[in-house]
Amino acid sequence: MERGLIAVDRWNEESQAYFLTHLHADHTRGLSSDWSRGVLFCSPISAALFPSRFPGFDLSLLQVLEIGRPRSLKLASRSDGQDLSVRVTAIDSCHCPGSVMFLFQGDLGCVLYSGDFRWEPTNEQAWRAKKTLLRVLGGDAVDLLHLDNTFCNPAFDFPPRDVAARQVIDIVNRHPDHEIVIGVDTLGKEDLLVQISQAFNTKVWVWPERLETMHLLGLNGMFTTQTAQTRIRAIPRYSFSAATLVALDSLHPTLGVMPSGLPWSPRPHDYYAAPHRLIHTVHFSAHSCFREIADFVRLLRPAKLAGTVPSSSCYLNPWHFFSHLCQPHSESTSPKHPSKKRKSTVRPRISESRD
DNA sequence: GCGATCAGCT
DNA sequence: CACAGCTGATCGC
Q1: Is residue A91 located within the same domain as residue A133?
Q2: pLDDT score recorded for residue A323
Q3: Contact criterion met (CB below 8 Å) for A160 and A212
Q4: Are residues A15 and A145 in the same domain?
Q5: Distance A121 CA to B6 C1' (A)
Q6: Do A80 and A63 meet the contact criterion of CB atoms below 8 Å apart?
Q7: Quick one: which residue's CA is nearest to B3's C1'?
Q8: Residues 277-336 of A with CB under 7 A from strand C
Q9: Residues A138-161: tens digit of each pLDDT
Q10: 3-state helix, strand, coil in chain A (%, to 5)
Q11: Could you list the residue range(s) of the whole structural domain that residue A87 is in?
């Protein structure tokens, strides 16, 4: 965004204000315990997790933005030093605990930075977030939308997370005598584990640091670090492997469940591919699928649109799909073919740098 | 010795 | 290809 004024998830350059969308490692690269560049704004949940991620961090630099509650900032214009007045509001992005979008309104125009987000059409939390966003927008036209375009391709279509959770529960149900091992990261998929805990009325094992995270998130009584208390364990994804599963299975019949955001079918000779008798994979994505991204753009009809995810072979410029949804604000015709212009061959477009 | 960056892997 | 992210090697100070 406005270089030198506002930095969202960017930590390696001088700026007048810094904003953290969420605490995944790829958004905190450059942040460290000895941070001293300036004030950092984040959500209440990110703030609660902050000391455990960055011990010794100067907490006087942390500014908590309540969800849906605008905060006024005074910045200085880079050209003439004049005061710039900006309102910023954090909106739940439903990507992981504490994840938010940032809506900036004021002298820099109306800019929405989506951060990583997943707004499923059937999700209550997402529905509330959408209401909040529309309320704070109050009819303002969005000049620029920085969009999570991770899966911005019509080929990406996958079920909502509660359906995926149901699939995991079914797998566990079908294997009543197995130990179950689920691969998870340091933050995310808590809802999945909570649903499993409730469905089987049992605690779920997690490693000690993960238990601390659960407690900081206010999830008490559903998780344990004691192996004997449960047959269901959530282990770090990086230690989840075929070799690990084989070793565990030799001690006691074990089944691995890998909830993965990777939505394409793997090929042979790929380590993701190796279909393994002990491993079930379930599509579980914390990013919006194409249809959900399209709904989001249609809701906002921004004048300009930019992707936030760096280049990859399956990245397509969101403008390619959504330009017809942008601008003429009063257009009430509903062109129901966001993928109309899709070429049958996926045409990779290299993005510029992440901004 | 430390942090930052990268290669490798899952 | 690569959701997110760990480990370990290496580079620069």
Answers
A1: yes
A2: 75
A3: no
A4: yes
A5: 40
A6: no
A7: A32
A8: 286-287, 309, 311-315
A9: 999 999 999 998 888 888 889 999
A10: 25, 20, 50
A11: 6-154+288-333
In Å, what is the separation between the CA of A236 and the C1' of B9? 14
pLDDT band, residue A263 (cuts 50/70/90): low
Residues A147 and A172 in one domain: no
User: Could you tell me if A326 and A304 are in contact, meaning their C-beta atoms sit under 8 angstroms apart?
Assistant: yes
Question: Average per-residue pLDDT in chain A?
Answer: 86
Question: In chain A, where does DSSP find H-type helix?
Answer: 44-53, 124-137, 161-173, 190-199, 208-216, 242-251, 290-300, 318-322
Which CATH number characterizes residue A209's domain? 3.40.50.12650
Q: Which protein residue has its CA closest to C1' of C5?
A: A25
Report the distance from CA of residue A237 to the C1' of nucleotide C6 in Å, as an integer. Answer: 9
- Write out pLDDT tens, residues A43-78: 999 999 999 999 889 999 999 999 999 999 999 998
Together in a domain, A85 and A107: yes
Residues A20, A139, single domain; the answer is: yes
Residue range A272-307, pLDDT digits in tens: 455 678 899 899 999 999 999 999 999 999 999 988
Determine whether the distance from the CB of A9 to the nearest atom of strand C is below 7 Å.
Answer: no
In the 224-243 segment of chain A, residues within 7 Å (Cβ) of strand C are 236-238
